[in-house]
Amino acid sequence: MMKPFIICLLCFVVSPFVTAQTYIFQDKNIDPETRIENLLSLMTIDEKIQCLGTNPSVKRLGLKATGHVEGLHGLAMGEPGNWGGDKPVPTTTFPQAYGMGHTWDVTALKQMGEIEGYDVRYLYQSPEYKRGGLVVRAPNADLSHDPRWGRTEECYGEDPFLVASLSTAFIKGLQGDDPEYWMAASLMKHFLANSNEDTRTTSSSDFDESLMHEYYAYPFMKGVTEGGSRAYMAAYNKVNQVPMMVSPLLNELTVKQWGQNGIICTDGGALKLLIDHHQYYETLEMGAAMAIKSGINQFLDVHYKAVKKAVSKGIVTEAEIDSVLEGVFRVMLKLGCLDSDDPYSSIGLKGESEPWLSARNKEAVRKATQKSIVLLKNENETLPIDTKSVKKIAIVGWLANDVLCDWYSGTPPYKVTPLQGIKEKFGDDVEIVYASDSTLDKALTIAEEADLVLAFGGNHPTGNAGWAKVTRDSYGKESVDRQSINLEDEAWIKKLYEVNQNTVMVLVSSFPYAINWSQRNLPAIVHMTHNSQEMGHALADVITGDYNPAGRLTQDWPMSEANLPPLLDYNIRNGHTYLYGKYPVLYPFGYGLSYTQFEYSNADISVDNEFITFRVQVENTGRMDGDEVVQVYVSFPDSKVERPAKALKGFTRVYIKKNESKEVIIPLKLSDLSYWSINEKKWVLEKGVVRIMAGSSSSAIRLEKEIEIE
Question: How many CB atoms lie within 10 A of CB 617?
Fold first, then answer.
């Protein structure tokens, strides 16, 4: 969305100060569709138009509605996006979504959703706060088809199966396990193919029908059909030359094919942009009318006058408005907003302390952050740090002394910086000295005298500047794409290396960097993302070996942007992503090292009517306990259509003690192996050979097996 603004609304309640009358829509024993029909029948046209905003309240009927909040990696009611206004509230803050993707752990994503959903309910219902709303704009189910995308930090990666799996897990956690009610509502964003920033309000993402279903729409489809989300945001951009907020895809694909029957909202200010930027219609009333006809039922925009005028001109009818508003009220019913006794209605009302201060939440964030850390290089077992030989560590770089938040972050209840976490970990056993890279002379002096140097480089998640501005070419964020993927910090890290070759890089970044020099020269490299309140503790756990890293990358890291196809080329077959990449990469999709080693053996596959079941024995042959991320890729040698040479279709993160072995079982849904037939307009499972490959990354395949589908 555009520059952040605050929406702070209350949920549906029956107000005794307005009316004591009982309406059909207030009776929970009546079926939901009848309740909604009754509610709409009681509303005037003006009330209905008002309800097309993010506040579907009807004061005359005693109804007041819940609004939206942001929550990509924790409820955002703080800085720097100013989501909490002049009274920010701290909330549980996980690593950026890009980092949570690196966990490859659906359990961790579901737990993050559960914790965030509870924070949302607590803040909303607690008498002390009464803040926020229950419709959460998360997850970002967009795919990062190119690492130059400024909002890479918000997504889980470039692979549709992985992003779908992680998004679905988060949605389930956020919405809760009750069969009738939701703890919070997941509003996915941004539908569809919204992975460029500089021209997002004018450009078109163009691709064929196969890529529509198999790639760009796939995570959203799974979010609806498997995750249970019933809300999403239409993107700013065009798709195949049609602005998304008036695209036939909203109704034809998401409603009719997937069964999406809830909220479909615009992005912030999108109605005006439809006229001024896309220049798709001449008037606001025409744009508003066509958006409603396309399925939009919430405008994140000043919409009332435009819709009112469209009604008066007969461009849109009251019946069409009724039809879309049904979806809004379905979501309100699922949130328990018309009922006082839903299973989540007591959260925050029993005097319990703030959940973001609980030991449970702190521990969950620490574990998730540990899991998100990726070991990119570890020559000669430089890590974990051996305190027998390392007695003095020089920590260099301003990123070591802060925990930075992005536009969609909340304010953490506390922050453990890398410097704090490392000092706490080593105590008096190791001398820790620190210098910012801005004081290079001091940095070089302490580096020369140290046994080990930890050099912190990376990006600033807000670009270290105001809206639509950044201070470095490699920085990116909402409204700004990256002009370079080269790490500017390598310039001063090279100088540290000249005085101390035992220099380890800690890359703190929201997206890939082409760190070619560092990979060639430095003995070890660790990557993590921003924002986690437990950043310092988790990093210290990893570099000391108290936690064995097992994070995996969720997109290819190119050697140079010169190797990449144009950013606005959305036909990924032209060389985008590991699925169709035609360029050398520094680190491949799924890559990440460990302090131990794993061996694969005894692969076996079987098939039934729904699944191919893949079994493999994985043994930890190294010196430490640890996690392995078993990744299963497939190819279709006999396919009659163009398909990726290798595509992820299953994965699991499994803990194995040293010298122990586990049988890992990964079911592959046959439906997930289908392709979209343009001719038949449906998913088709091809007969023939399926090659199944298992390994620790897309380029480290350990075993292959084939099976024939008849």
Answer: 15
Choose among 546, 553, 640, 542: nearest CA to 588: 553
Between the CA of residue 134 and those of 166, 230, 240, 299, what are the distances in Å?
A: 21, 13, 33, 17
pTM for this prediction: 0.96
Give yes or no for residue 206 having a pLDDT over 70: yes
Q: Is 403 exposed, middle or buried (0-12, 13-18, 19+ CB in 10 A)?
A: buried
Q: Which three-class secondary structure state does DSSP give residue 222?
A: helix
Residue 193, SS3 per DSSP: coil
Helix (H, G, I), strand (E, B) or coil at 591: coil
Q: What whole-number percentage of the chain has pLDDT above 70?
A: 97
pLDDT in tens, 629-664: 999 999 999 999 999 999 999 999 999 999 999 999
State the alpha helices, DSSP H only, in 562-636.
577-580
* Confidence tier at 14 by pLDDT (50, 70, 90): very low
State the pairing for strand pair 503-508/524-528: parallel
- Output the six-digit token pair for 22: 């009982």
Other Cβ atoms within 10 Å of 152 Cβ, number: 27
Q: What is the pLDDT of residue 469?
A: 96
Integer Cα distance of 136 and 591 in angstroms: 31
β-pairing, 392-396 with 431-435? parallel
Tokens of 284: 């606001």
Determine if the peptide bond prior to 527 is cis (ω within 30°).
Answer: no
Per-residue pLDDT, 62: 82
Rounded to whole angstroms, the Cα distance separating 253 from 249 reads: 5
State the average pLDDT for the chain. 95
Return the pLDDT at 7: 37
Helix (H) / strand (E) element for 40: namely: helix 32-42
Q: What is 151-190 written as a DSSP string?
A: TGGGS--S-HHHHHHHHHHHHHHHH-S-SS--SSEE-EEE
Q: Got the DSSP string for 70-131?
A: E-SSS-B-STTTTTTTTS--B---PPPHHHHHTT--HHHHHHHHHHHHHHHHHHHH-TTT--
Which SS3 state, helix, strand or coil, does residue 609 take? coil
Name the helix (H) or strand (E) containing 328. Answer: helix 318-334
Sign of CA pseudo-dihedral 511, 568, 562, 573: positive
- Helices and strands: H and E segment counts in the chain: 19, 26
* Phi–psi pair at 630, nearest 5 degrees: -85, 120
Nearest to 328 by CA among 656, 625, 32, 1: 32
Show Cβ contacts of residue 231 under 8 Å, excluding neighbours closer than 6 positions: 135, 185, 186, 187, 188, 262, 263, 264, 265, 331
Q: Where do the H-state alpha helices sit in 397-478?
A: 418-426, 440-449
Q: What is the pLDDT of residues 427-467, one digit of tens each?
A: 999 999 999 998 899 999 999 999 999 999 999 999 999 99
- β-bridge pairing 585-587 and 557-558: antiparallel
* Chain position carrying tokens 């008037």: 283
User: Three-state SS across 492-505?
Assistant: HHHHHHHHCCCEEE
How far from 426 is each of 283, 384, 385, 419, 429, CA to CA, in Å?
65, 13, 10, 11, 6
Distance (Å, whole) CA 684 – CA 703: 27
Residue in this structure with the two tokens 């469209």, named with its chain if needed: 310
> Per-residue pLDDT tens for 485-537?
999 999 999 999 999 999 999 999 999 999 999 999 999 999 999 999 999 99
277-336 per-position pLDDT tens digit: 999 999 999 999 999 999 999 999 999 999 999 999 999 999 999 999 999 999 999 999
| Interatomic CA distance for residues 332 and 555, integer angstroms | 37
Amino acid 102 reads H
Of 382, 610, 653, residue with least CA distance to 503: 382
